[in-house]
């Protein structure tokens, strides 16, 4: 409770979905039904499924990227509430709708469900689903991010967007914050990156404007490794358990202090207390004010962050 008003705590995406459900569905003051089983999310599957006991029996609910959910669906939920067979035409309509939403910078989730009989096979839960619709989540960049990106570019610091979101969403957001200005930035999706050789990845990283979208955790680590092989000092931000390997591999791992997991914070070199990209830029400015070149080309970067002095030594 906050000043007598109920307030949700937790993942912002989940809170947004709860708020949406309260607006479109009847709410009697009780929350859901007992969870019986779960098929957890990971960056390779790009979806999450939970099985619940409801008055109508066991129901499996699935949400995730459309490309991960659509192949599991055999029916589509229409406005009249009656599921119809999912034809190729309906699938194409959903794909086009996702593209239009992503072009507006929305994060898009597909929602699906199916009744499940008792005595079910856990490994076969995610099949014969009914596609219920798409949800667009507006997660606008903070106002100060654009100026922070501009400062990085002026200071010779390259910023690369690596995200699990749809490529069109990533491009729209990158354009909003000034990270992309050209009409045709290089966008590398996770499935493309999987087929790339190390040399092809190095060439892609040579492009002035490059975005990585729909990437898995191991691919984020691969990108970091490729940048280090190019003799670049790499700082990486992350908040999830899957980000820990990339945070460890980076020269400077920066975990989110508000939304970050314990695993990510344990793997980092710095914790960003306010989860704000602009704070990283402010720390770099402070550090460059204290940058001294010493014999043997060794430099010590001193950064004041959340009233603590963090010292890292780099040898060039």
What descriptive keywords fit this protein?
seven-stranded mixed sheet, alpha/beta, 3 domains, Rossmann fold, 16 strands, disordered C terminus, Calcium-transporting ATPase, cytoplasmic domain N, 316 residues, three-stranded parallel sheet
What does this structure look like?
By secondary structure, this protein is of the alpha/beta class. The chain folds into three domains: 12-137, Calcium-transporting ATPase, cytoplasmic domain N, CATH 3.40.1110.10; 140-232, 3-Layer(aba) Sandwich (Rossmann fold), CATH 3.40.50.1000; 233-316, no CATH class. The chain is built from eleven helices and 16 strands. The protein has helices at 12-24, 66-69, 88-103, 145-154, 167-176, 190-195, 198-205, 217-229, 244-249, 262-267, 277-289; strands at 35-39, 47-54, 57-64, 73-77, 83-85, 107-116, 129-137, 161-162, 186-189, 210-213, 235-238, 252-256, 270-272, 292-294, 298-305, 308-315. The protein has a seven-stranded mixed beta sheet. Helix 3 (88-103) runs parallel beside helix 5 (167-176) and helix 4 (145-154) runs parallel beside helix 11 (277-289). The longest helix has 16 residues, at 88-103. The N and C termini lie far apart (52 Å).
- The percentage helix is 25-40%
User: How is the largest sheet built, in terms of strand order?
Assistant: 1-2-3-6-7-4-5
State the end-to-end distance: 52 Å
Return the string of H and E elements: HEEEHEEHEEHEHEHHEHEHEHEHEEE
Give the helix/strand class: alpha/beta
CATH architecture classification name of the largest domain: 3-Layer(aba) Sandwich
In one word, what is the shape?
globular
Main pleated-sheet profile: 7 strands, mixed
Q: What is the overall number of helices? A: 11
């Amino acid at each position: 409770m906050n000043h007598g008003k109920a307030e949700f705590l937790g993942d912002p995406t989940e809170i947004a979905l709860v708020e949406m459900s309260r607006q479109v569905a009847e709410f009697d003051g009780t929350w859901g039904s007992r969870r019986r089983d779960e098929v957890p999310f990971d960056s390779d599957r790009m979806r999450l499924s939970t099985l619940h006991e409801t008055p109508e029996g066991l129901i499996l609910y699935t949400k995730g990227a459309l490309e991960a959910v659509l192949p599991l669906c055999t029916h589509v939920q229409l406005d009249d509430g009656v599921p119809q067979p999912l034809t190729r035409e309906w699938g194409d309509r959903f794909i086009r709708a996702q593209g239009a939403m992503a072009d507006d910078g929305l994060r898009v989730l597909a929602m699906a469900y199916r009744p499940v009989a008792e005595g079910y096979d856990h490994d076969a839960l995610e099949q014969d689903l009914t596609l219920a619709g798409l949800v667009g989540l507006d997660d606008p960049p903070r106002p100060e991010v654009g100026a922070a990106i501009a400062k990085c570019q002026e200071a010779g610091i390259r910023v690369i967007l690596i995200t699990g979101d749809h490529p069109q969403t990533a491009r729209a957001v990158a354009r909003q914050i000034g990270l992309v200005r050209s009409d045709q930035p290089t966008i590398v999706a996770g499935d493309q990156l999987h087929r790339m050789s190390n040399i092809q990845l190095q060439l892609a990283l040579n492009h002035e404007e490059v975005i990585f979208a729909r990437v898995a955790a191991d691919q984020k680590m691969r990108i970091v490794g490729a940048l280090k092989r190019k003799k670049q000092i790499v700082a990486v931000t992350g908040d999830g358990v899957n980000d820990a390997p990339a945070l460890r591999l980076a020269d400077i791992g920066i975990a989110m202090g508000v939304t970050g997991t314990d695993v990510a914070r344990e793997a980092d070199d710095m914790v960003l207390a306010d989860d704000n990209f602009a704070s990283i830029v402010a720390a770099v400015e402070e550090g460059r004010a204290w940058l001294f070149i010493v014999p043997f080309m060794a430099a010590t970067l001193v950064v004041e962050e959340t009233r603590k002095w963090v010292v890292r030594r780099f040898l060039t």
